[in-house]
Amino acid sequence: MLTTEADRYPYFAADFSHLDALIIAPHPDDESLGCGGTIVKHITAGSRVKIIFLTNGDKGDFERRFGEEYVAMRCQSADRAMTVLGVVDYEFWGYKDRELLTVEGELGKRLLDTVEVFSPSIVYAPSSFEAHPDHRSSFNVVWKLRNKVNVTLAFYEVLIAIYPNVLIDITNEIVKKIKAIECYQTELHYNDYLAKVVGLNRFRTATLPGTITYAEAYTFLGSGFPAQEELPIKLLETARL
What we know:
The structure is a single chain. The chain has about 240 residues and is an alpha/beta fold. It has one domain (about 20-235): LmbE-like (Rossmann fold). The chain has 8 helices and 8 strands. The chain has an 8-stranded mixed beta sheet, with helices on both faces. The chain is globular. The chain starts with 12 loop residues before the first strand and ends with a helix.
């Protein structure tokens, strides 16, 4: 059977901003890096948005530059980023950085309760291709929701590029995304995530119309998606822990 490029990769931008969304962020900054533009789109559309920061990110200060105030500084950075993105409903669950693997069972139950109470249409989480153990654990607990609740799962990219089946135009949202990322100065001290993520979002427009200058990429798992869903989902399944 002959296929075209569009059968394997999205050649148009989708828009799910009218749906209520729950965003799972392993650490404060992952939400802005991975799906900051999409979050703004949901907020602008008047949809309900909730963000959960799973860990306190306490091990991110590799050089011990920021001292005992580091965790508080990350929370304050997240507060500022939420203001930029327009998010008012968010929680810090406070698990230890790099230790989510040890609490996946507890985390799964807690997340299931949250989904049942908040009742989102989409749950966003890092993809299975991520290298960081907390990102992978976040994927694991969200992946296990797929047969328990009637929601669409959307997996985003942070530091490892994914094979997407959905591209979302964030051309009008990129300025707010940049400002939100800039709130995380403790993390930008160690890595210029801003330049790299903006470059990735620019690259993601390669198959889109020229009027779209920035896009975020996702692997969506749920009903109603186009033919190019099959290959990304197979890859997603083989990459999971």
